[in-house]
Task: structure prediction
Amino acid sequence: MTESPEEHCAAELRRLDPDRWLTGLFAPDDRRPGLFALYAFNSEIARARESVSQPMIGQIRLQWWREAWEGIAAGTPRQHPVVLALHNHCRGLDQGQVLALIEARERDMEEQPLPDMAALLAYAEGTSVPLMRLAASLLGADTDDAQLRAAGTAYSLIGILRATPHLAAHGRVLLPAAVLGAHGLTADAVVQTDVRATLPAVIREIAEAAARLLQQASAIKPSRAALPALLPATLARQHLKALRASGYDPALAEQRVTPFARQMALLWASLRGRL
Result:
């Protein structure tokens, strides 16, 4: 039996972005297909760089998605399961936020590391906050934008730290050059040598920036309708605790946050109505 576009999005999201798949389960049944389609689209553009051999090909993939959204808006969607699901459920979304999300991924095609903490924060916000805004819109939820920005940026920062070992293994570093330099490191050293003794200091500095943002986000009680869009911040808090407990070793921290722990954290947040 051929799967529907919505079934494809759910399966791909569960495989490629299990965190957002889990948070989507807390959305109302009638909004979940749209949320899964939106998150599956995000997964596509987030992987645009790592799934190709040359940055230029990644640029072409991003342009393909810009044109795909033009087709969605025109009522002539491309025959791609994610595009078809977006056409079915997400045609009314703010195209400015969609394009902002794609534009933020242009930075992934650059070979040079981010220069400083300000650039990292801007990248984290750009690749996450528009997605949270779009998710909240799909849910028909009113949101506090300051809370949304703090939650989205924190989740992205923690995600970057979690991805650091994987990225380094593929010759990429998103940790800012200025923060690395303050601890006697360079991006090349992170890629080419074993820096386990010194890298945790860099990880800690960025993790504590995420912790401050999570504190800001959790100080406000979101509306019940907005909560599923903001729940990634709850998972960011779980990963932050694991980083601290593991001595800021991302690989070890990843082993500490089990699927059951993620599920229980989300369930508790949902029951309390707080992040």
